[in-house]
Specification:
Distance between the termini: 51 Å
Number of helices: 14
């Protein structure tokens, strides 16, 4: 067992899918010769050749259009948008064609395209390099939106995304690329094959793909998050424990489809919730999560569901990003703002 980085896990997932399926192709700006600006595709061109992993011109709309066309021709494209905000020129292709092709053909034409998008802040990047654009994609019917928060999930979820016959926008938290975990790659490969067998069987029976995870158990309050903010929530839960508050943390993993049952069950148990996410709070994924929790868990809540998000401004200069992003202190302030004078409403009491 060795230390595996988030970036290396993604690289291994791409390599394993390229080896497993000759229709898989990887392309984007600088992904071939350079191996990507974050080196996620490092070594793939040398191993699989320029026809399987190749560079494209600096034209995101062309990259997305190429992916749609290749999928129509029987390929399984994995395309990289170099940075989150660089993907905006491709949005018309993604929203108008990639997301709608299967519906337009009554399911006859699969669209097995994975759009990899490094996203989020925390790296000291400048404007156009740190956007959290997940709300655009989650709001677009026809797209699945995945965002892993751990090294293990980076590997397992990317391989799963590539194998799906629906388009997946795969949001990769840039700040997590250099995080590490003690994992054995062979064990991960075996776990993926077991998971894929279960998922394939579930899909055949109509069971949704989405499944969130309770990554820390607690009894007093639930933090609901995804992607880059999950690690911040875990740090906040650790700090809260020192003050005698037991915090449960739910990692959503996928935004569309959404595993509403797991997060609602957690909030029903604890009676209090804070949703934590990096992008602006207005008209965001966080807004939708709060609305759904208020609706489903209303009779169990001891306090309104709160949010900790980025401010409603364009992404700030690097020196200010620590004030913009959700932090441990901001999360703990939200937890403190919950009304601790009331007990959660139990199912027995409500009955």
């Amino acid at each position: 067992m060795a230390a595996l980085t988030f970036a290396a896990a993604l690289n291994a997932a791409l390599a394993d899918e390229l080896a497993a399926d000759p229709t898989v192709v990887v392309f984007g700006e600088d992904v071939g010769t350079l191996g990507g600006v974050f080196r996620i595709t490092d070594g793939l061109t040398e191993r699989f050749g320029e026809e399987r992993c190749f560079d494209t011109p600096l034209a995101e709309s062309g990259i997305a259009g190429l992916g749609v066309g290749m999928a129509l021709g029987g390929a399984r494209p994995v395309m990289e948008m170099q940075f989150d905000a660089f993907a905006y020129p491709a949005f018309e292709q993604i929203a108008s064609h990639l997301a709608k092709m299967r519906n337009r053909t009554r399911g006859a034409v699969p669209m097995p395209v994975t759009v990899r998008i490094p996203y989020g802040g925390g790296i000291g990047g400048v404007e156009h390099h740190c956007d959290s654009s997940e709300s655009y994609y989650a709001h677009t019917p026809g797209l699945k939106v995945y965002t892993p928060a751990s090294v293990q999930d980076a590997y397992l979820m990317l391989r799963e995304a590539i194998r799906l016959d629906d388009p997946v926008v795969f949001m990769e938290p840039k700040r997590l690329y250099w995080t590490r975990a003690e994992l054995d790659l062979e064990d991960l490969r075996a776990e993926f094959e077991r998971r894929w067998a279960r998922l394939s069987e579930a899909a055949a029976s109509g069971t949704p793909w989405a499944r969130a995870a309770v990554v820390r158990e607690g009894t007093d309050v639930t933090l609901v998050s995804y992607g880059p903010s999950v690690q911040t929530c875990l740090a906040a839960a650790e700090a809260a424990a020192a003050e005698g508050v037991s915090v449960e943390v739910v990692d959503l993993r996928t935004l569309n489809p959404l595993d509403e049952d797991t997060m609602a069950a957690s909030v029903a148990r604890t009676g209090r919730a804070v949703v934590v996410a990096e992008p602006q709070g207005f008209a965001s994924v966080a807004s939708e999560l709060v609305a759904r929790l208020q609706q489903r868990c209303f009779h169990f809540l001891a306090a309104p569901v709160l949010r900790v998000t980025g401010w409603d401004i364009p992404y700030p200069a690097p020196k200010l990003e620590e004030h913009h992003l959700p932090s441990v202190d901001r999360i703990l302030d939200a937890v403190d703002d919950l009304n601790w004078g009331l007990d959660p409403v139990t199912e027995e009491a409500r009955a």
